[in-house]
Specification:
single chain; mainly beta; Jelly Rolls; 37-stranded antiparallel beta sheet; 6-stranded antiparallel beta sheet; 5 helices; 48 strands; elongated; OstA-like protein; LPS_export_LptA; OstA-like_N
Length: 716
């Protein structure tokens, strides 16, 4: 072997994960102490280190350095307690200060208390108590804490956890983020410090100068000031409340949009817009809505409904304009209408029914079908129709029809004849009950009336031409009419009236188009296919900070000592509610029963970079399984294991004997990445031991197992 080859081998060994890990576990070293004393009465088995006038006590282990005014060093347990102006530094990444720190060189877990501040290049954590796990590179507090992240703001919560390698925070309970642009309140809040991305779960609010958003599942980009919400969500935007299955907002553009089952409430104008897609522009004070768009406006003790392919509302509340485009309709209990386009002006009180020019000359509705209104028994058409309301009282006042004005109503007795009035222009007045009371038709007026006496007996059919006509209505029937500048006219007995003369030129009875209910507004629409909203995954709590791996480290740190100092600051619920049971991870051992499976060699690695030497596959025939019996009658169990491979298998905690009851089971769709699985069971207290089972192993299944643990849970 030449020198160059030997040098490369030594270099690789020096920087291999195993060597680095072993170096980090070496003994705590005393770098400096002003004075060293022994006090067996108060600190048995320990060295008491104190500072001098020159500098603090300095200790180190691997890449970690710690300074304090006083330190108690238990060399046998590789454990230190540091008091007074404590400072802990790891490399150039972690800088933590506090009044007190205790640190185990075996577990590499630090516990700090008293004005704790932990800084890394991304953020600063402050809390009264803090745990720092060097192995996992995680920090954790459970008694309130504060995180400061430059422009992203300040975050406070009851519980917080920092995953340093992922630059991810997970906050739980009473979470509040405050920065110059937004305040966020949430129950569960995941935050990535490098991107500024925040994920909110549970009842949450995002308050900015532009909007206030409520959601129970949402996302917010604290840097770009935009986000979306996908569960029970509302955006308060100016004087509007926006609801929908999926909401998006961008405060830099003063813009919000909504998708599927939308409801936009105007709190000032007392209107509601519905549909399946909407956009709101705050700067323009505008709302655009489509896909079964419907606007409902309250008027007096009634409501008016407007529907179209697209509806746009613009302007300030006192000067708001509603524009409904294409196949537009309105419906009120005593009034309905239809046009290619309907425009309504809040300030003037004018609602216009008009037809728009289309590119296609074959568009039947646009070129032949005129705007139409129905009031009581009257049908009114014309090239353009204006409804005029009193802006203050919102009561209908009058009606204008421009060009080709045509009123038609059925004769109430015969039900076969039609009263008809035609002219160039129509003016109508409504009474206090919103019923058409008086109509004046001017210029080239023509009329056909079924004239009746006081006994409602038909006198004859009146047909005439005149300069203008004035008519009084009562409940939709013609009560009185007056012609001015009559050109000609005759009253014919019905039997002598020519059949072909019973309809005026341009007659178009369109009763089948009349909306008689809210649902009728949509009867001509094509079915709407709503897009599938992917949204966000449901909230999945991370594994406990004091998981089984950490508790095992703590357990091992104290196994040779009467008092396990490494465990004394572990929360009671972590140390007392769980107990690790004996479990053999060697699948070749006799404790594992194996049926219809093959165990073959492999050179894979486990999640910690160690070697995996065995891989499990099913045999060609049958469904294989393997199980591990727990020789203890345990009522509440938690089994965790890491799996990696291909195929679909099942895991279960099962009764070992009797009827082999499945206490709990789970199907696993294996992946090529290591993944941790957990199953919890409540077992029958019948004297039979439980067993852990992996089953339904087919010939197409191939997988590895690593790090399986069995935990006895305390009774709830």
């Amino acid at each position: 072997m030449n020198k160059q080859t030997l040098y490369i081998i030594l270099l690789l060994c020096l920087f291999s994960p195993e060597i680095i890990h072993s170096q980090e576990k070496k003994k705590i070293e005393i770098e400096y102490a002003g004075r060293l004393t022994i006090d067996e009465e108060n600190y048995p088995g320990a060295k008491v280190l104190t500072r001098d006038e020159m500098q603090q006590v300095h200790i180190m282990q691997g890449s970690i350095n710690m300074w304090s005014d006083k330190a108690i060093y238990y060399s046998g347990e590789n454990f230190i307690e540091a008091y007074g102006n404590v400072k802990l530094i790891q490399g150039d990444t972690i800088h933590m200060t506090s009044k007190y720190i205790e640190y185990s060189g075996i577990t590499q877990l630090a516990f700090a208390s008293g004005d704790v501040v932990l800084k890394d290049p991304n953020s600063t954590i402050s809390s009264d108590t803090l745990y720092y796990d060097r192995v996992k590179q995680q920090a954790f507090y459970k008694n309130r804490g504060t995180v400061v992240k430059d422009t992203s703001g300040t975050i406070t919560s009851k519980v917080g956890r920092y995953y340093m390698e992922q630059k991810k925070y997970q906050f739980v309970d009473e979470v509040v983020l405050v920065n110059n642009d937004a305040n966020i309140n949430s129950n569960y809040f995941d935050f990535y410090s490098d991107t500024g991305y925040a994920y909110l779960y549970g009842p949450s609010t995002i308050t900015t100068t532009e909007s206030k958003t409520y959601t129970e599942k949402g996302f917010y980009d604290t840097k770009n000031k935009n986000g979306y919400a996908v569960k029970n969500s509302k955006i308060h935007y100016n004087n509007r409340i926006i609801e929908g299955d999926s909401l998006y907002f961008d405060d830099t553009k003063k813009f919000a949009s909504a998708t599927n089952n939308i409801k936009v409430t105007d709190t000032i104008n007392h209107s509601i817009a519905k549909g399946h897609y909407a956009e709101v522009f705050k700067a323009q004070d505008s709302l655009f809505i489509t896909k079964r768009a419907l606007v409902v406006t309250k008027q007096e003790n009634d409501s008016i409904y407007m529907h179209a392919d697209k509806i746009m509302m613009t302007g300030k509340p006192e000067n708001r304009i509603v524009r409904a485009y294409y196949n537009a309709k309105i419906y009120k209990s005593d009034l309905s209408g239809k046009a290619d386009s309907i425009h309504s002006n809040q300030k003037t009180g004018i609602t216009q029914l008009i037809n728009l020019a289309r590119l296609s000359s074959t568009d039947v509705f646009s070129t032949k079908r005129r705007p139409i209104l129905w009031n009581v028994e009257n049908q009114m058409t014309g090239d353009t129709i204006h409804l005029i309301s009193n802006p203050k009282t919102e009561k209908l006042d009058s009606l204008l029809v421009f060009n080709n004005a045509f009123i038609i109503s059925k004769d109430t007795i015969s039900k076969t004849g039609f009263n008809q009035i035609f002219g160039i222009r129509l003016t109508g007045l409504f009474n206090d009950e919103n019923k058409l009371r008086k109509v004046d038709i001017v210029k080239n007026a023509e009329s056909i009336f079924y004239a009746r006496n006081d006994k409602q007996e038909l006198i004859g059919i009146d047909k005439a031409k005149s300069g203008s006509i004035s008519i009084l209505f009562a409940d939709g029937d013609i009560e009185e009419y007056t012609r001015y500048n009559q050109v000609d006219g005759n009253l014919y007995p019905e039997s002598k009236y020519p059949e072909k003369e019973k309809l005026l030129k341009g007659f178009d009875w369109r009763e089948d188009e009349r909306p008689l209910s809210i649902d009728d507004l949509f009867k001509e629409d094509e079915p709407v296919v709503l897009p599938v909203i992917k949204g966000l995954d449901d909230y999945i709590p991370q594994d406990a900070f004091f998981d089984e791996e950490l508790l095992e480290r703590i357990k091992l740190a104290g196994q040779n000592f009467i008092i396990n100092k490494a465990a004394r600051n572990i929360p009671d619920e972590e140390s007392s509610s769980k107990k690790t049971l004996l479990f053999n991870n060697d699948i070749n051992s006799l404790e594992w029963q194996k049926v219809d499976i093959l165990i073959r060699p492999t050179n894979d690695t486990d999640p910690n970079g160690g070697k995996i030497t065995k891989i499990i596959t099913g045999k060609t025939l049958g469904e294989g399984y393997l199980n591990h019996v727990i020789n203890k009658n345990v009522e509440n169990l938690m089994w965790t294991l890491w799996l990696k491979g291909t195929g679909i298998i099942k895991i279960a905690i099962q009764e070992n004997g009797n009827d082999y009851t499945h206490y709990n089971s789970k199907e696993i769709n294996l992946t090529n990445e290591w993944k941790k699985y957990t199953i919890v069971s409540k077992n029958e207290n019948d004297g039979n031991f439980p067993r852990c089972l992996i089953y339904d192993i087919q010939s197409t299944d191939s997988f590895n197992i690593w790090g399986a643990q069995l935990i006895e849970l305390s009774k709830k």
